[in-house]
Design brief:
heterodimer, A: MetI-like fold, 0% strand, globular, B: mainly alpha, MetI-like fold, 13 helices, 72% helix
Chain lengths: 275, 306
């Protein structure tokens, strides 16, 4: 029906693509289990021999990646919670409450989707310094939330508009206030949409580099992306260590990806959020 | 809230409708003004000054000088050229390759979900990780790419130094962006492809259209919105290239030949401490992005007429 190629050619092309995608990832994983001397071996091996977990032990014990991991978890948890709360409240108003100037307000909010994040770094840095947020995880959480607000509110407004109105109208007649309707009706009926928001804001926070690099100068407060980048810069040839750190940073992302795989693809396809 | 709007009691109306609305809007717009709109305005102001970071009141007004300075700055011009070349290569390859993969995956074949999950995988690895990975793969001494080119294929006799040369560095930079990005492009295409009614293909097949004809006369025209959307988002993403350039070459000290627009902005601002000039560079970029967004609206309107 929707065939453009025969099965043979289809698999041929798809498998080539698969090799191109997996080879670099596999090589990274393999290197993380190699000894330092094996990394300089010619020809390079695709299978680590001898196999060692020493890189992981070093990275976690002597290089403080456990601390950076914890910092990242903390910042991601804050960002996800705050983004979820703030965006869903905004989206509720834009989906359900009618007032003058609402559409203008919404357009202003959508401006945030057009602005290149790196462009804001200079003035955001100045604002953060005013608020004494330099070297402070709250500076990361608040800015990450802000950078997510526009897109996630846009997404949730669409989701909330699909919730049938009869339910809330019945609740209002029974004397419920907007807060109750929001918490008891709108949110529980929008779980798949909320999952997409969780994924998006988690990934943003977990991977963000540019802002964290500016704001966090104190070594013990680093999040994983800055820790990896700096580690690679400082330990130029210790690729085994670098990739062990990288794999540690990837584990939560892979887990979330595999668990929410369906929501992932839906979320990407409906919002078009750039990964 | 709707049910209550018929009431005329103003105080009740205030506590029931207006106040909750304000409370719902306040945290979001508070953050938005503090960290988005405020900074945008502040940055615009800075771009017209020779900005003094320690004493902002001591800054001197220079009008459009910072903007003109950018146009006459050879490093900025080279950074623009680099960014444009990078954008053209990465966008065109991702558009074509993503469509090919999507068409292949849109067929009824076994293992579709597996392929889709696999192809999307590089997208969820971060820019930092992909940059580090490609720095390793293209490393001068221990890189896999040099090994293959020199010892397996014998194309070169020496190890190529991919990140030093201001032309050669495009190879790893664009490849990493394409490798990371194609999965995303594919998913967007797939969403577009699945919206095309199957009956169209069936009818065309009955009329004797072959695979290419079906692709050319059904798939492509009906994908127009998707194509325009992808083009714009990818171009904007390309123009904003930052992390990979920053981590891999960082402009290439000391010659500054391998900057992207944003790595040069970073260097001007945070290393040379010329905040006004840095702000002007970011506004040049924003203007560019804004014009492209307008173009998107125009093209989409055309699609609607179509």
């Amino acid at each position: 029906m929707r065939k453009f190629f025969s099965n043979g050619w289809t698999y041929f092309f798809l498998l080539i693509g698969l090799a191109v995608v997996w080879l670099p990832l596999w090589y990274m994983l393999a290197t993380s289990f190699k000894t330092q001397s094996a990394i300089f071996e010619v020809p390079p091996r695709l299978w680590p021999n001898p196999f060692t977990i020493q890189n992981y032990v070093d990275v976690l014990t002597t290089n403080h990646f456990d601390r950076y991991f914890f910092n990242s978890v903390k910042v991601a948890a804050g960002t996800v919670t705050l983004t979820l709360l703030v965006s869903s409240m905004l989206a509720y108003v834009f989906a359900r409450v009618k007032f003058r100037g609402r559409d203008t307000l919404f357009s202003i909010l959508l401006l945030g989707m057009m602005v290149p994040p790196v462009m804001l770094i200079i003035p955001q840095f100045i604002v953060a310094s005013w608020l004494s947020l330099f070297n402070n995880h709250w500076g990361l959480i608040l800015v990450y939330t802000t950078m997510n607000i526009s897109m996630q509110t846009f997404l949730l407004r669409g989701v909330f508009e699909l919730v049938p109105r009869d339910l809330e109208e019945a609740a209002f007649i029974d004397g419920a206030d907007s807060w109750t309707v929001f918490l008891r009706i709108i949110l529980p009926l929008s779980k798949p949409g909320l999952a997409v928001v969780i994924i998006n804001s988690f990934l943003y926070s977990w991977e963000e580099f540019a802002w964290a690099q500016i704001l966090i100068r104190e070594e013990s407060l680093r999040t994983l992306p800055i820790a990896i980048a700096n580690y690679q810069g400082e330990h130029l040839t210790e690729w085994g260590h670098v990739f062990a750190a990288t794999m540690i940073a990837l584990i939560p992302v892979i887990l979330i990806y595999l668990i929410f795989q369906r929501n992932f693809v839906q979320g990407i396809a409906t919002t078009g959020l750039k990964g | 809230m709707r049910a209550q709007s018929k009431h005329q009691l103003t105080s009740q109306r205030f506590f029931h409708d207006v106040l909750p609305t304000i409370i719902f809007l306040l945290p979001g717009f508070g953050l938005f003004f503090l960290f988005m709109l405020g900074p945008m305005g502040y940055s615009l102001r800075m771009s017209f000054y020779n900005w003094n970071l320690a004493n902002p009141e001591m800054s001197t007004w220079v009008g459009f000088d910072n903007y003109i300075k950018a146009l006459n700055d050879p490093v900025f011009r080279h950074a623009v050229l680099n960014t444009l070349i990078y954008t053209i290569i990465t966008v065109s390859v991702q558009m074509v390759l993503g469509l090919c993969v999507a068409v292949l995956l849109n067929q009824q074949i076994r293992g579709r979900a597996f392929f889709r999950v696999s192809y999307y995988f590089p997208v969820i690895t971060s820019w930092v990780i992909v940059s580090v990975l490609f720095e390793y793969l293209f490393n001068g001494q221990v890189g896999l790419v040099n090994y293959v080119l020199k010892d397996v294929l014998h194309i070169t006799t020496t190890n190529l130094r991919w990140f030093i040369d201001d032309r050669l560095f495009f190879v790893p930079m664009t490849l990493l962006a394409i490798w990371k990005g194609v999965g995303w492009t594919t998913i967007i295409y797939l969403a577009g492809l699945q919206a095309i009614p199957a009956e169209l293909y069936e009818a065309a097949t009955v009329d004797g259209a072959n695979g290419w004809q079906r692709f050319r006369f059904i798939t492509l025209p009906l994908l127009r919105t998707t194509l325009v959307y992808l083009l714009i988002v990818l171009v904007i993403g390309g123009l904003n290239a930052y992390v990979s350039f920053f981590l891999i070459t960082n402009g290439g000290n000391p010659l500054d030949r391998t900057h992207s627009i944003l790595t040069w902005m970073y260097k001007v601002t945070f290393l040379k401490r010329d905040f006004g000039y840095g702000a002007a560079i970011s506004y040049w970029l924003t203007l560019f992005v804004f014009l492209i967004s307008l173009l998107q609206l125009k093209l989409l309107q055309k699609t609607a007429d179509y």
